[in-house]
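Blackboard transcription, Thursday session:
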Amino acid sequence: MLVFTRKLDEAIVIGDGIEVKVLRIGKDGVRLGVTAAPHVPVHRREIYDQIRAANAAAAAARGGVEDLVARLRGRVAPVPDRS
Amino acid sequence: MSQTASAAPIDGVVTFADGLPGFERCRQFVLVSSPALQPFTVLQGVDADAPAFVTIDPRLVTDTFAPALDRVTLARLGAQGGETLLWLAIVTAGDDGVATANLRAPLVINPASMRGIQLISLDSPYRIDHPMQAA
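(Written on the board underneath:)
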């Protein structure tokens, strides 16, 4: 891992055009600004990890879907008809 | 802002260019819907060892589901803004018998481009484990 010391308003550049800048240093955290091309996904690590774990828990092996649907059936709350 | 739509069936392969978190290499999926699966739809990976996910129209889980899509996300879906997009929430059957739907990171598919993403917004009012109640 590369380790940097950065002060307020200082930045690092990653690859071609990704910039991470220190916008504020507070008691409870550091506020970062990320500049990247629109197609570059930027996520909070803990959110991404949560979604990864949720996907892993939800994934069914091929052929296991019917069992899963049978277990899930009847677990949908009725939605009021708004039509 | 694109409208949310009910789950109309989609034929063909949907490409998730980034894969799904945890399954980043699985990019090609088909949607399987049938009367036997109702009200669920199955997102099945095309590759031999690819996972399958049971999904549901988020509005069947909560009738207040109204997520926002920014311009960048619309561009990644190849959407101009007027398309009818398909929204799906991945369902998990917990070991404790409680089923939950992931409204925090829903799937969004543009049928016009056959492109899909799992939406990971920086802020969302929805839960990753929204409980599904027995009807």
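Lecturer's comment: The interface with chain A takes residues 18, 20-23, 32, 36-37, 39-40, 42, 44, 48, 50-54, 56, 59-63, 72, 75-76, 90-94, 99, 102, 104-105, 118, 120, 122, 128-129, 132-135 of chain B (CB under 8 Å).
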